[in-house]
Amino acid sequence: MEADSAASPNPGAPEPQASGAPSTIGSVLCRIRGKVFTWNILKTVVLGQLLSLCICGTAITSQYLAEKYKVNTPMLQSFINYCLLLLVYTAMLTFKQGSDNLLDILKRKWWKYILLGLADVEANYLIVRAYQYTTLTSVQLLDCFGIPVLMALSWFILRSRYRVIHFIAVFVCLLGVGTMVGADILAGRDDNSGSDVLIGDILVLLGASLYAVSNVCEEYIVKKLSRQEFLGMVGLFGTIISGIQLLIVEYKDIASIKWDWKIALLFVAFALCMFCLYSFMPLVIKVTSATSVNLGILTADLYSLFFGLFLFNYKFSGLYILSFTVIMVGFILYCSTPTRTAEPAESSVPPVTVIGIDNLGLKLEESGLPDTHSAVL
Fold first, then answer.
1. Separation CA 10–CA 7 (nearest Å)
2. What pLDDT, in 10s, does the model give residues 133-170?
3. Are 305 and 316 in contact (CB under 8 A)?
4. Residue 377 carries which DSSP code?
5. Is-contact 303 52, C-beta < 8 A?
């Protein structure tokens, strides 16, 4: 009888429930930590912020040229960058053999890369030109229009499939941008109302949409073909298109520049920052996606503001720190859960491969598959 009563589960029944709750919470926290604090996410965050610093460099040099030296030549600045891409990456394609050779690529896909180069050149030009017509607030807010356009294009063209957490993360990032815009208004950085707000807003929307098109094409080419092909062809046709447009719209502005070593140094600094941005962005997109990269570089305006505190006497606001934190939280949320790539309906590929190649490192960590399955992925 004593043995039976000792073996009875009734006396000890409440104890597992009492100790089960903390263990459940602990396991949930461990899972969250395992998904968020990983090497792949840390690497993605660092690479994204390096891109933001490159964009910050282009913004600061452009503002210095415009405010201190009265030089407004965005097309000339872009033309120098495309020339650098031409000299480096297009030249690399000329020495490749087989289907990767420059002439072979031009024979098969010349018209596609003309359209890509046109979209890239005009996206850069329209955003910069919009500042002449509309307000800084409008540009910062409407420029985010490119993110939902990019997600839609990725859904239909790249067959990317998003989860609820991705939409929440995008909303959090846009909330951070709204906080930054609010800080700009409170700090008085939005005094210029622009000459024609409607035209400026339309230019921003068109530029953001063209950026989305360019980024989707970049992701497809980088993941399916090669980084050198994308940069080489953009350098080639970007140089031609921006050179023609340069002669049409900025000939008088260039002729009026009073050149000295300081202006030349600012042009060189801009070109190097833009060249680094174009060179490194495909590397980041290849291991993540165009959408996550665009979310990460939302902090570029904040870096420009922080440098502007010392260079242009901007007023500091605690909302800038809050905005940076909110954007980074949304960016990490987006990267914490990988998207998947849907296979065509007629595909007979085994189910293990339907996760696609977007955020591949995160997928391997999340799934915890054996080595044999990892090799298949």
1. 9
2. 776 667 777 788 889 999 999 999 988 889 999 999 99
3. no
4. -
5. yes
**C-alpha radius of gyration, the chain, whole number:** 25
Please name the amino acid found at residue 136.
L
The amino acid present at 35, given as its one-letter code, is K
* 277 pLDDT higher than 90: yes
Name the nearest CA neighbour of 55 among 311, 300, 328, 306. 300
Which residues, 6 or more positions from 1, have their beta carbon under 8 angstroms from its beta carbon?
A: none
Q: Does residue 208 have a pLDDT over 70?
A: yes
Q: What is the mean pLDDT of the chain?
A: 80
**16 in helix, strand or coil?**
helix
Q: Give yes or no for a contact between 337 and 36, defined as CB atoms under 8 angstroms apart.
A: no
286: left (phi over 0), alpha (psi -120 to 50) or beta: alpha
Per DSSP, the three-state class of 317 is coil
Q: What are phi and psi of 321, to 5 degrees?
A: -65, -45
With 90 as the cut, is the pLDDT of residue 217 above it?
yes
| Residue 269: Cβ within 10 Å count | 16
pLDDT band at 229 (very low <50, low <70, confident <90, very high): very high
Q: Are 150 and 215 in contact (CB under 8 A)?
A: yes
The percentage of residues in the chain with a pLDDT greater than 90, rounded to a whole number, is 32
Q: Is the pLDDT of residue 246 over 80?
A: yes
Q: What is the DSSP string of 251-287?
A: HHHHHT----HHHHHHHHHHHHHHHHHHHHHHHHHHH
Instruction: Indicate the pLDDT class of residue 350, thresholds 50, 70 and 90.
Output: very low
Half-sphere exposure for 174 (CA within 13 Å, toward CB): 14
Q: b or e along 64-81 (b: 16 or more beta carbons within 10 Å of the residue's beta carbon)?
A: bbeeeeebbbbbbbbbbb
| 3 or 91, greater pLDDT | 91
The H or E element spanning position 340 is strand 340-341
Q: Give me the DSSP letters along 127-193.
A: HHHHTTTS-HHHHHHHGGGHHHHHHHHHHHTS-EE--HHHHHHHHHHHHHHHHHHHHHHHHTTT---
- Read off the amino acid at residue 157: I
The tokens describing 157, both together, are: 């063209």
Provide CB contacts within 8 A for 72, sequence distance 6+.
65, 66, 253
